[in-house]
From TrEMBL:
Keywords of this entry: GTP-binding, Nucleotide-binding, Repeat, Ribosome biogenesis
Top-rank taxon: Bacteria
Keyword Nucleotide-binding: yes
Function description: GTPase that plays an essential role in the late steps of ribosome biogenesis.
Start and end residues of each EngA-type G domain: 2-168, 178-352
Positions bound to GTP 1: 8-15, 55-59, 119-122
HAMAP family per the UniProt record, alphabetical: GTPase_Der
Protein name in UniProt: GTPase Der
GO MF annotations, alphabetized: GTP binding; ribosome binding
Record-linked InterPro entries: G_ENGA (IPR031166), GTP-bd (IPR006073), GTPase_Der (IPR016484), KH_dom-like (IPR032859), KH_dom-like_a/b (IPR015946), P-loop_NTPase (IPR027417), Small_GTP-bd (IPR005225)
Record: residues binding GTP 2: 184-191, 231-235, 296-299
Gene3D superfamilies: 3.30.300.20, P-loop containing nucleotide triphosphate hydrolases
Complexes and interactors: Associates with the 50S ribosomal subunit.
Length: 437
């Protein structure tokens, strides 16, 4: 999907704007829930045009004033590099600041379609001159918006989608080779792992061009199996500032995940599993990738206590995705790296599973007899039947009498029952509910 990045210095209202756009656009669909709700990216759909909206504000690490502007600049630069369209937000109630100017310089270099959005003008008609001031940034016509009130977001979205590239549809390559993405935070050990995999005697390696832009994939052959490691140029490119920016690794991850069947989520065990790791896991799950969580740098954990502690954090952070596969590895020593492929294969297999309608409905019968249901006043949830409506990942549609009675905990309950009955280890599954009287 094309990426629309929202950039600007802190406190100009980026997150409010992102939320506003998210609410305005038709469908923000999250059928398969990930492990965290807190997000800085949204899959949005405006009049049939799908795109991913990335809020760089959600990932600004800065607290101190000094590192602040450098970090904003880097964010802007990385955002500009990766995005298809940039929404540059400034604060109309404050006027042009030095930081705005430095962000503007980064954006201009990128030569991407940019919208200059002047936020916090609650009365744009009377505040025209405040708007004009922003012409000095040199990134085009300032557009008055009110993130808070939502003025103009519909028009803005029309203009944004008009500029999105069309060519993203055929991104998934369909040549029967399993696509695997190596994702994770900067320094988790992605490129070390990649090199270890390539260096293995068992792998025969070839580079192939990806379908889009500068994507380079690597196909490895192991015995009679082939795997496509997607976007490996991104892993190799240890470029200056970007590689250390969470935003960059996230967006890179997004691109890779879009084209992958299985995601290898590399975690740095020496620093523990962080919130950002959780976000990256979430991206993969929501986009329907099977995941194998690689607890890398296991060699750095000094004792059993540290190892136990690490496992506890992982369990807590991945609470909603207990079904993932875990492997303790060391990309440095090569420990357990060979074991990755068996987990990839089984996760991929489960991801393409088909469950017969009769087995599904047997489960439904069991649930009716022994399970919970939901009662709300005089209404009682009744599930009539269920059928599989998709694979990769498996999707199931339940026909029920009242869809609004299904809440999160009931969804989880059904998912748990499904997982206890069928083998979905390693893969997300999607549950949909349709009304039928
Ligand atoms: P990337 O940013 O995710 O690609 O991470 P790199 O592969 O560049 O690794 C970051 C640093 O961690 C490098 O100094 C690696 O040598 C080191 N590293 C990676 N994997 C391991 C590991 O399993 N054990 C140890 N001790 N160090 C590792």
């Amino acid at each position: 999907k094309p990426i629309v990045a929202v950039v600007g210095r802190p406190n100009v209202g980026k997150s409010t704007l992102v939320n506003r756009i998210a609410q305005t656009s038709d469908a923000i669909v999250h059928e398969s829930r990930g492990v965290t709700r807190d997000r800085s990216y949204y899959d949005a759909d405006w009049c049939g045009h799908e795109f991913t909206l990335v809020d760089t504000g959600g990932i600004e690490p800065m607290k101190s004033e000094d590192i602040f502007s450098a970090s904003i600049r880097d964010q802007a630069l990385a955002a500009a590099e990766e995005a298809d369209v940039i929404l540059f937000v400034v604060d109309g109630s404050v006027g042009v600041t030095e930081e705005d100017e430095s962000v503007a310089r980064m954006i201009k270099r990128a030569k991407k379609p940019t919208f200059l959005l002047v936020n916090k003008l609650d009365n744009p008609d009377r505040e025209q001159e405040r708007l004009w001031e922003f012409y000095s940034l040199g990134v085009g016509d300032p557009i008055a918006v009110s993130a808070l009130h939502g003025h103009g977001t519909g028009d803005l979205l029309d203009d944004v989608v008009a500029l999105l590239p069309e060519s993203y549809e055929d991104e998934k390559i369909d040549d029967g080779i399993l696509s695997v993405a190596i994702i994770g935070r900067p320094n988790a050990g992605k490129s070390s792992l990649f090199n270890k995999i390539l260096g293995s005697d068992r792998s025969i390696v070839s580079n192939v061009a990806g379908t889009t832009r500068d994507a380079i994939d690597t196909v490895i052959e192991r015995g009679d199996k082939k795997y496509r490691l997607v976007d490996t140029a991104g892993i190799r490119k240890k470029s200056t500032v970007y590689e250390n920016i969470e935003y960059y690794s996230m967006v890179r991850g997004l691109r890779a995940i879009d084209r992958a069947d299985v995601a290898l989520l590399v975690i740095d065990s020496s620093t523990g599993m962080t919130e950002q790791d959780q976000k990256v896991a979430n991206l993969a799950i929501e986009r329907g990738c099977a995941i194998v969580v690689l607890l890398n740098k296991w060699d750095l954990l000094p004792d059993d206590h540290a190892r136990e502690q690490m496992m506890e954090t992982v369990e807590r952070r991945m609470g909603m995705a207990k079904w993932a596969n875990y492997l303790r590895i060391s990309a440095l020593t090569g420990r357990s790296v060979e074991k990755i492929w068996a987990l990839v294969d089984s996760a991929a297999q489960n991801r393409s599973a088909r469950i017969s309608t009769s087995k599904l409905n047997q489960l439904l019968t069991d649930m009716r007899e022994f399970g919970h249901t939901i009662v709300d006043g005089r209404r009682r949830l009744r599930m009539h039947y269920v059928t599989q409506t998709g694979t990769n990942p498996p999707a199931f549609t339940f026909f029920v009498n009242h869809t609004d009675l299904i809440n999160d905990s009931y969804r989880r309950y059904i998912e748990n029952r499904m997982r206890a009955t069928f083998d979905f280890k390693g893969t997300p599954i999607r549950l949909r509910f349709r009304k039928k009287d």
